[in-house]
Amino acid sequence: MDRGALEEPFLVFGQPSLGEEEIAEVVECLRSGWIGRGPRVTRFEKDFAAYKGVEEAVSVHSCSAALLLALQAAGVGPGDEVITTPLTYCATINAIIHSGARPVLADVDPVSMNLSPARVAERITANTRAIIPVHFAGRPCEMDPLCELAARYGLIVIEDCAHAIETEYHGRKAGTIGDFGCFSFYPTKNVTTGEGGMVLAKQPRHREAVRILSAQGMTLDAWKRYRSDGVPHYEVVAAGFKYNMTDMEAALGIHQLARVEANWLHRQRIWLHYREAFAVLPVTLPAAPFPGTRHAYHLFPILVDPREAGTDRDGFLQRLRDLRIGSAVHYRSAAEQPYYRQTFGWQPKDFPEALRIGRQTLSIPLSPALRESDVARVVHAVRTVLETPARTEAMGAGV
Ligand SMILES: Cc1ncc(COP(=O)(O)O)c(C=O)c1O
């Protein structure tokens, strides 16, 4: 144990960087007397649409809500199958289940860690209605072959952009390539509103459907009903959800978005520094960004193979924790999760790349809140763990 490390504060994984502008805007919002969905949400939607170069963005309560509403707006439901990746947060799969459709997994590419178009092609049946590619860690999926498959089989494409606000693929921005793009503003994400999400959709009718479904299926939201020139009556045209964003959340988002590129540059520097600092260590580092793409640098996943590293992933995580560094696992293969295995009969070995990555992967801190001294602590801790592996915990956990 490094004694000096014990005196260091615990470096929390995924800490957001919140500035005075966010704090002042939230206070102003509180003082304004309107804290629900209102003018700040409208401004945040406009700013986000401008950032993405689209006509309109529809805010929601979370990316989980965004995914479900996109599926519903596209008419996906019982009897349908939706193909996605096993290397994702459970929200992606749960949204498919809540839509009434059946989730179908296709394995990932071992280098990009993204949905493999070849594996997707193998899973398409007469019931397939949609594909949800997840731009894992901020690296864009192979959208051209995926969209070609979608066009050939008449499938909807819903991009899960929870990691991918700044991501681009051959000049196109993530979330504007498929039929829908769904974003997350959870505290660890590249832009945060505490909780929050956004939906982009190519077709105006899809955007309108998401907007209505996010507000209980009503044709008018509260701001339009209660403001001085508002119309008091609404009509319920669908059985919707309470999935709207609030002005307090948007107050954060407006200023977070204004700094999105500065924060991206900061994380890019850290990401590149890690790649250099760990180049000779016995772990697998994320591949360099692919040509013609822009990586969002949301995560820096390291693969820890116990046969090479002398420690397994969980041992590595624990030793980083002992050195006061927080890390996280993105993600164990969804095919390993008990509910999905029992409900859909998924076998982890049917998705061997996701299984191996899911058992070896560890994300080290990569947040815009990191100072140079924090990054130096992370680098020192990772080196310490790998240079002095605790051999007793190693071996046997690899795939
Ligand atoms: C890939 C992915 N999809 C969806 C979500 C769900 O986002 P939210 O927490 O905003 O519902 C997350 C959140 O961590 C995620 O990482």
Itemize the secondary structure elements and their pairings.
Elements: H1 3-6, H2 20-32, H3 39-52, E1 58-60, H4 63-73, E2 81-84, H5 90-99, E3 102-105, H6 117-123, E4 128-132, H7 143-153, E5 156-160, E6 168-169, E7 172-173, E8 180-184, E9 197-201, H8 204-214, H9 222-226, H10 247-258, H11 260-277, E10 293-294, E11 300-303, H12 306-309, H13 313-322, H14 338-344, H15 352-360, E12 361-364, H16 372-387
Parallel strand pairs: 2-3, 2-4, 4-5, 5-8
Antiparallel strand pairs: 1-9, 6-7, 6-10, 8-9, 11-12
Bound molecules: pyridoxal-5'-phosphate.
The site of pyridoxal-5'-phosphate has 14 residues, from α4 and α5.
What descriptive keywords fit this protein?
399 residues, alpha/beta, Aspartate Aminotransferase, domain 2, Aspartate Aminotransferase, domain 1, 2 domains, seven-stranded mixed beta sheet, three-stranded antiparallel beta sheet, 16 helices, 12 strands, 41% helix, globular, disordered C terminus, binds pyridoxal-5'-phosphate
